[in-house]
Design a protein that fits this description.
The strands form four sheets. The protein has a seven-stranded mixed sheet with strand order 1-2-9-6-5-3-4, with helices on both faces. Strands 7-8 form a two-stranded antiparallel ribbon. Strands 10-13 form a two-stranded parallel sheet. The chain contains eleven helices and 13 strands. By secondary structure, the protein is an alpha/beta fold. The relative contact order is 0.11. It folds into two domains: 185 residues, 3-Layer(aba) Sandwich (Rossmann fold), CATH 3.40.50; 119 residues, Up-down Bundle (Dehydroquinate synthase-like, alpha domain), CATH 1.20.1090.10. One of its GO terms (biological process) is aromatic amino acid family biosynthetic process. Its cofactor is NAD(+). It comes from Streptomyces asoensis. Keywords: Amino-acid biosynthesis, Aromatic amino acid biosynthesis, Lyase, NAD.
Length: 349
Amino acid sequence: MSAIRRIDVTLKDHDYAVHVGSGARRLLPAVLEELGVGRVALVSAVPERELPDPGVPFTVVPVADGERHKTLASVESYCRAFVEAGLTRSDAVVACGGGTTTDTVGLAAALYHRGIKVVHLPTTLLAQVDASVGGKTAVNLPEGKNLVGAYWQPSAVLCDTDFLRTLPRRELLSGYGEIARCAFIGAGDLRGLDLTEQIVASVTLKASVVARDERDQGPRHILNYGHTLGHAIERATDYAWRHGEAVAVGTVFAGLLAGRLGRVGQDRVAEHREMVESFGLPTWLPSGVPVTTLVELMRRDKKKGKDADAGLTFVLDGPRGVELVPRVDEHLVSSVLADLPSGPAPTPA
């Protein structure tokens, strides 16, 4: 096993480690032993032969990854599988899959017996750099993305980069969408690093932000950079656009909107597009989706406050750095969106 990097997430009531590197999944038995776990349910989107032996009695629960399965019905099915597996509050759940799996299984773990330990084994780049870390768990409703959820921190996260070797190019691009936006929220330009170091840098940034604001009361809003429009694009295309692709467009839009508001200069605006394009990510809106539809979906964003009727809320760059900007005029938002070209979902070779 090559050297595995460790990032500690230090919270007020709960600390845990994120391990990143080739073979990280093989740390699972030691992690479970340290947690004192007697039995686990391995909720997995990968073949059983790719799962590590947890070293304790276990039940494999198959899961279908993807946004279409990120539902309350899935949460119920997992909880019923936990009952069949005989899990008690002293046992644990292991979530092995992409970001939709860690989100959905994490919520099931938060609800089962009012909270059971969960260990994440993220298998996609998107999940490794972002979704599996930070304790946000949620599922979608027909009305919007991530509208039902809970904060439930994992007991450990094992980011085995070997999972990424066979990842389809488009899934890698989705992860790069989160890496690209990290450049504007404190991580700096990560393009010169190898993939493992990009993951480590992204997780280190997120760990530092979550440590300061576990429950989205302030600084953690910066992690939503590019996500307000990104989530709207996902929903408007019925998730035909991947999360990272949509966030990439949202990042370009955030730069343009900040420029139109006079918060940043044109060089900084151009830097957003250049960063996204350099990763091979889209910088256009999905064809066939009216601007009015995107604006309506953004009205449902979770960040809006009690004065939400006064406009939209975005996380934007500015003279004081990235911050939450409320009451942005919808006509201005529509005008900026109208300036973006449109096209099909990316189809990388």
